[in-house]
Design a protein that fits this description.
With 432 residues, this protein is of the alpha/beta class. The protein is 27% helix and 27% strand. β7 and β8 form a beta hairpin. The protein is globular.
């Protein structure tokens, strides 16, 4: 398998982004290195044609804008999400049981729970604190070494373990953190880690949003290195692909990259796809670079196109019967158009035709996924964004195995293929 120039950047991004807050911080850093200017939602904006800007909300969602050099007539939008299923700490997580300090957790999103047992777990997220001068500050925290584990129960003590027994997340998923520890030790540990990472001392902890994560780094897998195995491929892979495509563009056309938080729990938040973040930003852009009225805004949105990127279910060689016979995407077989007649995906024939044309222009193969008629179908930010904004949209993604597991698998070629297609989309003058 040849060396792919984006692969090392992808693996580094995945490892440095254990939470949505870290992912957004890393994306923002990359944008600033490429000349993008940060905007503050609470300040007045002064925008110029051809400028490159970005804005965040809740530090976990981000919108990057490449403003057109000419009139604001249409926008090429790429959408993804920054969150992944997993285990989040409860507000008062510390509890002591039988000589062990443990952490109470809440399941975030539709996580596969079984793969979380016996993994080396780090801790990351954001912490809000009051400094000794009275200022309230939010800081990122990442403890990348194994500090916790959810130990399995030996099969000798649970003979039904391999027979599909349900896992109780309240009673069976609490990780162990410290032998002989007391409940007060957890706050002391947080303060120690904040000092080690930020030099902060004499602070009062006010609140936090923290998650456990697998410390095993991303890796190429397979005899020829055909696969990528990593945590959070769903959907940091799409965030990375969209960012690479935007940065590789020629800068002529109006383009938007939006990466929302909270997709895995329904997107209903101020920074989620069902919230007003994207529309707020686009209306402010239209007010400065367009004609500014409601009719002009509707014309802009209807002339634009959105490609929602979220990974697709690849055909699993051990479970081929879980796919419709004519719609089993192959890993390393090219990007996947996701279709659902009941609008769980936003694709229609017009938007799919545009994407197929983009793939043909780049010499990239394209695949299609439709779920079996006797199975339920997941969803993405695509239908939500289309409903909230009204922009013509389609859903695509890289094929992967193990979606919502603590460690997922995709093909090493597919990211580059989708980057090429999305770069062509951002550079495309005619969206019809």
């Amino acid at each position: 398998m040849p060396h792919l120039p984006t692969l090392e950047r992808l693996l580094g991004f995945l490892q440095r982004s254990p939470t949505p807050w870290h992912a957004v911080a890393n994306m923002a850093q990359r944008l600033e290195q490429a000349g993008y200017r940060r905007l503050d939602e609470t300040a007045g904006w002064r925008l110029s044609p051809g400028e490159k800007v970005y804005v965040t909300r809740n530090d976990s969602s981000i919108i990057a804008l490449q403003l057109p050099r000419g009139p604001l007539a249409a926008l090429r939008m790429i959408g993804a999400h920054t969150d992944s299923p997993g285990l989040r700490l409860k507000p008062n997580p510390a509890k002591v049981a039988h000589g062990w300090l443990q952490l109470g957790v809440e399941v975030y999103g539709g996580a596969l729970l079984a793969p979380w047992f016996d993994r080396d777990l780090g801790l990351a997220g954001r912490v809000h604190l009051r400094r000794d001068d009275g200022r309230i500050q939010g800081v990122l925290l990442n403890v990348p070494r194994p500090v916790a584990v959810v130990p399995s129960l030996a099969i000798h003590l649970d003979r039904e373990a391999n027979n599909g027994r349900a896992i109780n997340p309240q009673t069976e998923m609490a990780p162990v953190l410290l032998q002989g520890g007391q409940a007060t030790d957890f706050e002391a540990l947080l303060k120690r880690w904040l000092y080690e990472q930020h030099g902060l001392e004499g602070v009062a902890l006010l609140d936090f949003e923290l998650a456990l994560y697998d410390t095993q780094p991303p890796a190429r897998v397979g005899v020829e290195g055909e696969l990528i195995a990593s945590a959070r491929l769903d959907n940091l892979l799409s965030c990375f692909i969209g960012l690479e495509a935007l940065l590789a563009s020629d800068g002529e056309q109006g383009a938007v990259l939006v990466a929302n938080d909270h997709e895995e729990v329904g997107s209903a938040s101020a920074c989620g796809a069902q919230g007003p973040f994207l529309e707020d930003v686009l209306r402010r852009v239209n007010a400065q670079l367009g004609e500014g009225g409601d009719e002009d805004f509707v014309r802009l949105i209807q002339a634009s196109r959105m490609i929602s990127c979220d990974n697709a279910h690849a055909l699993h060689p051990n479970f081929a019967d879980k796919h419709d016979a004519g719609h089993g995407p192959a890993i390393n077989g090219g990007p996947v158009i996701k279709v659902n007649a009941n609008q769980r995906y936003a694709t229609n024939s017009a938007t799919a035709a545009m994407f197929r044309d983009l793939c043909q222009a780049q010499g990239v193969p394209v695949q299609t996924f439709v779920t079996r008629a006797d199975m339920g179908c997941g969803s993405t930010i695509g239908p939500i964004t289309a409903s909230e904004l009204g922009v013509p949209t389609l859903d695509v993604g890289v094929p992967q195995w193990g979606m919502h597991s603590i460690r997922e698998t995709c093909g090493v070629r597919d990211a580059d293929q989708l980057i090429r297609v999305l770069s062509g989309f951002v550079n495309r003058a005619d969206l019809v």
